[in-house]
Amino acid sequence: MPAILDALHLELIHAARPRSYDTQGKMMPGVKNRIGVPKVDVRRAAAGVVRRGDGRALLREVCAAPRALPQEVVMAAGLVVATEPGLEFTERVARAEELIRLIDNWATCDLLGSVFPDMKENEAAARAWIGRLLNADDDWSIRLGLVLLLCNFARRPAVRASLAAALAPRVLTAARRSYYVSMGLAWMLAECFVDGWEESEAASLRATVSGVMDAATARRTARKVRESLRFTKAQKDRLSQAMREALARAPRRADEAPARAVAVRSRSGAPLQAHGSGRFGGK
Description:
- The chain has helices at residues 3-14, 39-51, 55-64, 71-83, 89-100, 106-115, 123-134, 139-152, 159-166, 169-177, 179-195, 197-210, 215-227, 233-249, and strands spanning 263-265, 271-273.
- By secondary structure, it is mostly helical.
- α7 (123-134) packs antiparallel against α8 (139-152), α8 packs parallel to α11 and α9 packs antiparallel against α11.
- The protein is elongated, with a radius of gyration of 19 Å.
- The two termini are 37 Å apart.
């Protein structure tokens, strides 16, 4: 019997706040398997598992669970992967890869990507992992790879290599079909602009004018830059004008993604409808 998993699930149920569906729930349309637990309480529950020394046992139970797990349980497991002491980097990566199949929303994906430790200290192994994620067939794996890139390798001297990885053909193909990959790519590119404006502008415009980056992702990238307080008005105006010109020159394709929303697949294959945009992709 998965005693630790069941105890975690029960703790999260007791921490539930049903009104969270009025706010957070609207940002994750189509995600039904939620308890309604604030992220601070998810973090507290995960920290308790680690403090009690139950981290490894929980991860074994999560990966062997015969039933679908609520979003907050998967979030807590991701936090345990990131904070469980004594794990070598390669083992931590292996544990994270076991959890990816359980990810079915941007919030769980981005939480794991934003807290994963020791990436810069293990850059070669980290980049190899990101490369596998960005080359995956699964959209959430690709999104996770983009989040790991932007959180760890979007600054000099890593900007050029990260731009090349993010603008790889498989990522750009996924961005055409998936709203969440598109938003993740736009977010990643905007982060690269902070410390590598010239390289990021050139790479983004080149991908746009050639048609390899779809119009919706190009517009989202420019919007992410415009919404940031880290750029001057002159920079924002320059990029907006350059992006409009690049889009006007780009070849038109029949498979362009809608500008604001697309249907994406859940793990079960059922369609989920994405709406809106914000700092995070689904979101």
